[in-house]
Specification:
This protein is an alpha/beta fold. The chain is built from twelve helices and 16 strands. The radius of gyration is 22 Å and the shape is globular.
Length: 465
């Protein structure tokens, strides 16, 4: 253990949990604050750390996708998030989806059982004094009103929020399996059965659904708040308002699916993805919504196969918080105006579970370096982590909006090549550069803090580091 003071982490969501784990990896004492269950939020349901409140999917596990590259980088940096996800994985095609209760429970036990981590279950309303060591603010999209004011004060920001929405969950025993079929997109007859349940809709059923959706009563949202949604997490009613076929080209797209009863592609589909290993719960993929609960019940029961469905959770809307990182943060995630104060997670303007956790890795490691009297490090922009950091701290961005990892953020190869070849090239270079950087930046401090390359897409068990 290093006698270098304490790293304080405020918030035990994905980013805060990851930050605490990473700082403790360097032998530092960590004080981890979590206000739940004493103070609740509109979306969380348990007191567990790293609770997933929207979807149970951590997106693609393949390095053909930018999200897969990010996951591989995180495993190289001993991510507790990805390791736990692999241990709690549920079938979801090429995606890495988890049994969310097992996932958050496992991370909670790991952190609470770590002798270097002191867990404090209370709400924080102001920052601890600088003499106590580095502070990581990882309060996430549901930052409490009290601490939001503290963030507003230390950053000088006026607006710190947008609105996000949650998909409904269906009781698997109440689905009419005679009307749905199990398949993943583009799965072939020789492959195992698909990981999604698909509710097929005819042209008339689809048009009736859209008409009912557009006339359904919504939870009121103030006029100036209407444009504050993530584009990749839009409520279905917002998508439907953009055109009658918007949903058919979005979450209800039938591409790559064949209904075995007809041998044809449906006009539209509603996909259900398993929530847990026992396949007793399913979420309606892409159906985040701000409709009132009675409206949701009536509308979703019109979907083939869901006529008698019981909903374990309805969709909802809640306030999310993020800062204007380009003007406030260094690429190390340290606040420009105040040394030894770091931000991590969705609050910095990254979108998605994995991206939020990745920012926890950066903040945790850099805070640890500062606690040991060293300078924080900047991740190479050719890596997935570094490309995200470059985006959220780019001072030339005027209209800053949250971003998830994508190939457009990476520096592009200088020579022209086909898309598939280019993506493989970017993935290879990113992982090689990240491994090289990690050994140079952290290897001399703690060689156990650097993992080895894995095969995420192969599934299987991975030991939590």
């Amino acid at each position: 253990m290093h006698d270098c003071g304490t790293v304080t982490v405020i918030g035990a969501g994905l980013a805060g949990s990851e930050a605490a784990h990473q700082a403790a990896k360097f032998g530092l004492r960590v004080r981890l604050y979590e206000m739940r269950p004493n103070t609740t939020t509109p979306a969380h349901q348990t007191p567990d750390f790293a609770e997933l409140v929207c979807s149970n999917s951590l997106k693609s596990a393949s390095t053909e996708n930018a999200s897969g590259i990010l996951k591989e980088e995180m495993l190289l940096l001993r991510s507790i998030t990805i390791a736990a996800a692999l241990r709690c994985r549920v079938p979801a095609g090429k995606a890495l989806a988890v049994d969310r209760a097992k996932f958050s429970g496992r991370i909670s036990r790991e952190l609470e059982g770590n002798p270097l981590i002191e867990v404090v279950r209370e709400e924080v309303s102001e920052l601890p004094p600088a003499t106590q060591g580095p502070v990581i603010i990882a309060t996430g999209p549901l930052t409490s009103p009290k601490f939001t004011e503290q963030i507003r004060e230390i950053t000088g920001s006026e607006h710190l929020y947008f609105f996000d929405s949650i998909s409904p969950i269906v009781d698997g025993e109440t689905i009419d399996y005679s009307k749905v079929f199990r398949a993943s997109r583009y799965s072939k007859g020789s492959e195992p059965e698909g990981d999604y349940l698909n509710c097929p809709l005819s042209r008339q059923q689809y048009q009736d659904f859209v008409k009912a959706l557009l006339s359904a009563e919504q939870v009121s949202v103030k006029e100036f708040e209407k444009e504050l949604y993530f584009e990749s997490c839009l409520p279905i009613e917002v998508m439907a308002s953009r055109g009658v076929d918007s949903l058919r080209y979005g979450p209800m797209r039938p591409v790559g699916l064949t209904d075995p009863k007809t041998g044809r592609r449906p006009y539209a589909v509603v996909q259900l993805r398993t929530e847990n290993t026992g396949r007793t719960m399913y979420n309606i993929v892409g159906f985040q919504t701000k409709l009132k609960y009675p409206e949701q019940r009536s509308l979703f029961k019109a979907i083939p196969g869901l006529e008698s469905a019981e909903f374990l959770r309805y969709g909802s809307i809640h306030r999310n918080t993020y800062i204007h990182s380009p003007g406030l943060l260094r690429p190390t995630l340290e606040l420009k105006k105040r040394q030894n104060v770091f931000f991590a997670g969705q609050i910095v303007g990254v979108e998605g579970y994995v991206e939020s956790a990745a920012m926890g890795i950066v903040a945790g490691r850099n805070a640890a370096l500062c606690a040991m009297g060293m300078s924080p490090v900047v991740f190479p922009p050719t890596t997935a982590i570094g490309s995200l950091l470059s985006y959220i701290t780019d001072e030339q961005i005027r209209d800053f909006q949250p971003m998830n990892i994508n190939f457009g953020l990476f520096p592009q190869p200088q020579k022209r090549m086909p898309k598939s070849e280019k993506r493989s090239y970017i993935a290879k270079k990113a992982l090689e550069r990240l491994e090289e950087f990690a050994h140079a930046a952290f290897g001399h401090i703690n060689s156990d803090g650097i993992g080895t390359k894995s095969q995420l897409s192969a599934g299987g068990e991975t030991r939590i580091p």
